[in-house]
Specification:
CATH superfamily of the largest domain: Alpha/Beta hydrolase fold, catalytic domain
Largest sheet: 9 strands, mixed
Strand content: 25-35%
Shape: globular
Structural class: alpha+beta
CATH class of the largest domain: Alpha Beta
CATH architecture of the largest domain: 3-Layer(aba) Sandwich
Number of domains: 2
Strand order of the largest sheet: 36-35-34-33-31-32-30-29-37
CATH topology of the largest domain: Rossmann fold
Helix content: 10-25%
């Protein structure tokens, strides 16, 4: 067996592995950018505090605009997003602690609260400059804010599209659908467009695009349904001359279309092949396209997990080359003259970029590094895209990003860690993540898998998980592990699997259905899908109807797919990490799974965090997870017996390399 070298965790020079503490504190992240008077503003996530800071980014500095006690974060749909906007000379934001809207006037240092609707959360904030008010999505929970709302009380939160004046008064603009998102106001203030959908749909499966006319006072007229097909519509936006655009997966790929007054039609010219111009809207506030003052459209498109900035004009899509080797671009914004976006790379920390697009298509845009972008001082593994062919599906490849271990001076098979993203309708990208480098610097190879159902590879690939969760994803990760073993890259005696949330479910399901794995780690993972259906939040309360089946019609399928009901099939050790404040996957799920495995005589570790919810935010807790997971795997590698013959895999040495690009 090939054991990784012992960890020293004593420094950050090229010869020492990154420590668990450094792996989680190094990665500040950026989101929700906006340009005002040539200055970039946005949200900066600080790992050491777990807070989201509203910042001004200038000259390499991130200046927080708010006092220390504030964190800018919405919890609508539990995943939030769109938690701030600029309103004239003031900043308006959702405060995480009370989920109310606050404002900070220009020149002030102390914010004041705008809303006092304590049973209501807010997201997707947009400023209506014509009427000096906010437009937002509201989500009312439990009790009612007034007697007039008693008639609407229900067991589920009520979502609406509302206007909010600066005295905190709410006016309903649209209601009746189960969900709303993405309000967009025309430049003259006469029209409001938005996205809505109902149970059991999800926003990446089937939504509607609607529009209303607004009078001078901002009252909404009759709702018009503009979407012409059953598809996943997203990101309605008005161009500077008032033409409504949206992203829709009409032809399998999420592409930008425009409304011609009768229907939505594709933009003239051939769109980039196999490229998508948005991703699954788990959060509000996605921003992947916008316009300059001269009417030129700019957009970030993704193909095979890699992002490209495009310029569209004269019916032609032109890819733009940036000075920074970005592999993922998001949070695109424009003030008419300049662009800004968040750039993530394979070999450095996330950055905020300012771009001055050049008029000549052959000239690289003037690109200024505004914030971040530091290169690590430790040795790193740069991912490469691999495609794993499923043995029973000649036309389906499973894309994954392979990180080779460090140091990489020999070709011996290495311990393999299969890394699974959440969602499951989400995706992983080839970006620098210190938490992955933590493993490669300890001798592990990491396979970061975009199993079937992942986004960024077309609607057809995304929908292949329909009714197949716990089957298709398990087949995919097993195929990845098998082919890496067969190629002589992975040690069959040291194959591990780990995932968070939905990835935790796939981890547990794989451990129950495959003999490949020596052990696994579930981070707030689903263990009982039927119970999740009964108690989870509104946004995902019908999600499993599509992923597995309607539990009222086919309860047997839930038992077949439940790691809890199949716990007897798990024979290898498992480590669990769970937040006590998790409102998506309740802690009782993990406790039941742990108890069942222990009753079956399986070695289990379980770690609970009183101050965490769904997705750990505090650096100290994240570091403890890494350190304990590493100790767990290392101990298992010291006691496991040779398994290559048991699992029936024939090594083929290094002949026949994996398909890659």
């Amino acid at each position: 067996m090939s054991l990784p070298a012992p960890s020293t965790d004593t420094g950050t020079d090229k010869g020492a592995p990154i420590s668990a503490d450094d792996a989680v504190t190094a990665l500040a992240d950026y989101a929700a950018l906006s340009l005002h008077d040539g200055v970039v503003y946005g949200v900066r996530y600080e790992p050491h505090s777990g807070r989201n800071r509203l910042c001004r980014f200038q000259e390499g500095q991130a200046q927080s605009l708010l006092p220390e006690r504030f964190s800018v974060r919405s919890r609508v749909h539990e995943y939030g997003g769109g938690a701030w906007c600029r309103g004239g000379t003031r900043w308006l934001f959702v405060n995480d602690e009370d989920q109310q809207i606050w404002q900070l006037d220009a020149g002030a240092t102390e914010p004041s609260r705008v809303t006092t609707h304590l049973n209501t959360r807010f997201a997707d904030l947009h400023w209506d400059r014509h009427r000096h008010r906010l437009i937002a999505v509201s989500e009312q929970h439990g009790g009612c804010d007034s007697h007039a709302e008693l008639a609407h009380a229900s067991d589920e939160p009520i979502n609406r599209l509302v206007a909010i004046d600066l005295q905190g008064q709410l006016t309903v603009l649209a209601e009746g659908a189960d969900f709303y998102s993405s309000p967009a106001l025309s430049p003259d203030g006469r029209y409001l467009a938005w996205i809505e959908w109902d149970h059991p749909q999800q926003p990446w499966r089937g939504t509607r695009l609607c529009r209303v006319a607004l009078d001078r006072a901002g009252r909404a007229g009759s709702r018009q349904l503009l979407s012409d097909i059953d598809a996943a519509w997203a990101q309605p936006r008005f161009s500077r001359n008032g033409v409504l655009h949206a992203v829709v997966d009409r032809d399998n790929w999420w592409r930008i279309e425009h409304y011609d007054g009768v229907r939505f039609v594709p933009l003239p010219g051939a769109a980039p092949e196999r490229t998508e111009f948005t991703t699954a809207p788990w959060q509000f506030g996605l921003a992947t396209y916008g316009w300059s003052d001269d009417g030129t459209l700019y957009a970030t498109g993704q193909r095979d997990g890699y992002s490209t900035l495009y310029r569209y004009r004269s019916a032609c899509w032109e890819p733009l080359t940036l000075t920074l080797p970005a592999t993922r671009l998001h949070a695109l914004c424009s003030d008419g003259e300049r662009l800004a976006c968040v750039a993530e790379c394979a070999d450095r920390l996330p950055a905020v970029l300012m771009l001055h697009p050049a008029p000549d298509a052959n000239t690289r845009p003037d690109c200024t590094l505004v914030q971040g972008g530091e290169q690590p001082t430790t040795r790193i593994s740069v991912p490469r895209l691999c495609r794993i062919r499923l043995p029973h599906a000649a036309t389906t490849d499973i894309p994954c990003f392979l990180y080779r271990p460090q140091p990489s001076g020999d070709d011996r098979p290495r311990p393999l860690l299969i890394w699974l993203h959440g969602g499951p309708t989400a995706a992983t990208a080839p970006v620098y993540r210190p938490a992955i480098q933590y493993w490669t610097q300890r001798g592990f190879m990491v396979a970061d898998v975009n199993y079937r159902g992942s986004t960024g590879f077309g609607r057809d690939y995304r929908l292949q998980l329909a009714g197949q969760w716990g089957r298709a994803d398990v087949e995919d990760v097993e195929a990845v592990a098998r082919q890496l073993i067969e190629q002589g890259l992975a040690d069959p005696e040291a194959i591990f699997i780990r995932g968070n949330s939905a990835g935790g479910y796939t981890t547990l399901a794989a451990l129950a259905h495959s003999a490949l794995f020596v052990g696994g780690a579930s981070l707030y993972g689903v263990s009982d899908p039927a119970r999740l259906n009964a108690v989870t939040h509104k946004f995902e309360s019908r999600y499993l109807h599509w992923l597995i089946a309607d539990p009222a019609i086919d309860p047997a399928r839930y038992r077949q797919r439940s790691p809890l009901h199949n716990a007897a099939a798990i024979r290898v050790p498992v480590i669990f990490f769970q937040g006590e404040n998790d409102r998506v996957v309740l802690p009782e799920q993990t406790r039941q799974m742990v108890a069942q495995l222990r009753e079956n005589g399986v070695e289990v570790e379980a770690h609970y965090f009183a101050d965490e919810g769904h997705g750990f935010r505090k650096a100290g807790n994240q570091a403890r997870v890494l350190a304990r997971e590493w100790a767990f795997y290392r101990r298992l590698m010291g006691q496991v017996l040779p398994r290559a013959r048991m699992i029936g895999i024939k090594r083929s040495g290094n002949s026949g390399p994996l398909a890659s690009s």
